[in-house]
């Protein structure tokens, strides 16, 4: 269920990022971004937002031990249950209700980019409730960073990687979602071997805009309420050298912080196209470097908008990775 908290959004943990995105690129319209001298331009944002995402179907995140109905029927961790007895599955509660009504059922399941059908025969517990021996999830909520905004189309991109399930590490199958206003209340500093995180609050009752896709290169959507100001910055290609990130690590304040792009890896396909090192003393003092929740922080270099922060190195939180803006935009 959706609750206040921090989504494990950072590829800081290698198991968090994976690729089921091929069937999930739902946002087919391209942003009508402003142009400056013929070069596409977008507003780099850098403010945190709450992200609320609902899955298409329900994801199996864990199977209980033993000869359970789920195991006997052939369900696997990471499966997404799309239908139960021919009825589309829309939530955990609805799925439980379908099992309770129908008992044994054929489940239509999304698995590894395809679909299969498995049959489960639920067992009733002492209270008469049908159970299959599987933990399932239909939604997630947490905090990430808004990367860019297009004032002409009101479209946005955030995170630089997808929202993944905290237990399986798989990309959450997208149905719908929204972004919410967020304020950073505290920071857990990163340390060697342990990722830090931004801790904030967001209002689940107020939406700033709707999501249209959850991909391995970011989440995308359209803002309806947010009034984002700022000058559009031309999109450019990153290069080794000094740069800065825009991040919100205290309250509602967005500030630029110095980093160094130490290496560009244009062929990397996992959001690790840029190796970066935080050099700003203020940010190092406040966060220890890159922490969870900063994912999506815009990277600006030589007057060009070149990328977004995506990962942190657990053994050295001052170092991490980023994705190029051209790769992020291509996912739209």
Q: How would you concisely characterize the structure shown here?
A:
The protein is mostly beta strands.
Q: Could you explain the architecture of this structure?
A:
With 332 residues, the protein is mostly beta strands. The chain has two domains: 235 residues, Thrombin, subunit H (Beta Barrel), CATH 2.40.10.120; 68 residues, Pdz3 Domain (Roll), CATH 2.30.42.60. The protein contains four helices and 22 strands. The strands form three sheets. It has a six-stranded antiparallel β-barrel. The protein is elongated and about 65 Å long.
Question: Which short descriptors sum up this protein?
Answer:
six-stranded antiparallel β-barrel; single chain; elongated; 2 domains; Thrombin, subunit H; Pdz3 Domain; 4 helices; mainly beta; 22 strands; 332 residues
Explain the layout of strands and helices:
Blueprint: E1 34-36, E2 39-44, E3 48-63, H1 69-73, E4 80-84, E5 87-88, H2 92-102, E6 105-111, E7 114-120, E8 123-124, E9 130-131, E10 134-149, E11 155-158, E12 174-188, E13 197-202, E14 209-215, E15 218-223, E16 233-234, E17 241-250, E18 253-264, E19 274-278, H3 281-287, E20 298-301, E21 304-313, E22 316-324, H4 325-330
